[in-house]
Amino acid sequence: MMRTRYSCILTVLSLVIAYYFCTSYWLYAQKSGSNNTPLQYATSGSSLNVLLESTPYPVKVNDSSAKFKVSFLKPGTSTVQEHVDFNLRMYDNETNRIFQATNLTGQPEVPLHATEGVMTIPMLNYKFSQPGQYRVEIPVYGILFNPIRPEFANFTLNVVG
Q1: What DSSP line would sit under 12-46, residue for residue?
Q2: Element spanning 9, H or E
Q3: What is the domain range of residue 18?
Q4: What is the 3-class SS of 135-152, one letter each residue?
Q5: CATH number where 101 lies
Q6: Does the predicted TM-score (pTM) go above 0.90?
Q7: Which residue has the higher pLDDT, 23 or 141?
Q8: Which of 29, 58, 114, 123 has its CA 20 to 30 A from that of 147?
Q9: Are 86 and 148 in the same domain?
């Protein structure tokens, strides 16, 4: 009986340690940009985690086919948070705004609404003219039809030549 209990405890501890190391490596890989995994950051108020994926990867200069998939997750989980009001903005290395997703709707002051908690934003006719680092800002304005004080998730996008 005691041996079975110790065996169960050791199994659980092994799983926790394995999870910790796998998660740590995954987060390191995301931040270092070493692979094609999505970038994930918490919003400034920690109400949501935001995942950002680019297609194609990496984003290239003069490519007008770039799209960005934005997914909203409940904090500390992999569960998608439905009904999120947000925007997606891009800035060059001099902090000039070069793109705003709500401009595509013709109503730049009205947030986008991710009904399913996931939305793909096409860049349409926009092309990055220079390689380098760009800042992607995703402000969140509401969750489940409830307005919140805006919270922001910020990402660094590397555009290659």
Answers
A1: HHHHHHHHHHHHHHHHHHHHHT-SSPPEEEE-TTS
A2: helix 2-32
A3: 1-35
A4: EEEEEEEEECCEEEEEEE
A5: 2.60.40.1930
A6: no
A7: 141
A8: 123
A9: yes
pLDDT in tens, 76-105: 999 999 999 999 999 998 889 999 999 999
Asked whether residue 23 falls in the same domain as residue 43, the answer is no
* Token reading at 90: 């891009």
Q: How many domains does the chain have?
A: 2
Same domain for 72 and 121, yes or no, is: yes
Contacts of 1 (CB under 8 A, 6+ apart): none
Is residue 48 pLDDT above 60, yes or no? yes
Torsion, CA 127, CA 132, CA 158, CA 119, rounded to 10? -30
Could you read off the pLDDT of 111-126 as tens digits, one per residue? 999 999 999 999 887 8
Which two tokens mark 83? 């009904």
Owner of token pair 């290659």: 160
What integer is the mean pLDDT of 70-80? 97
Is the same domain home to 20 and 55? Answer: no
Residue labelled with tokens 């997750």: 73
In the predicted structure, residue 18 carries a pLDDT above the cut 60: no
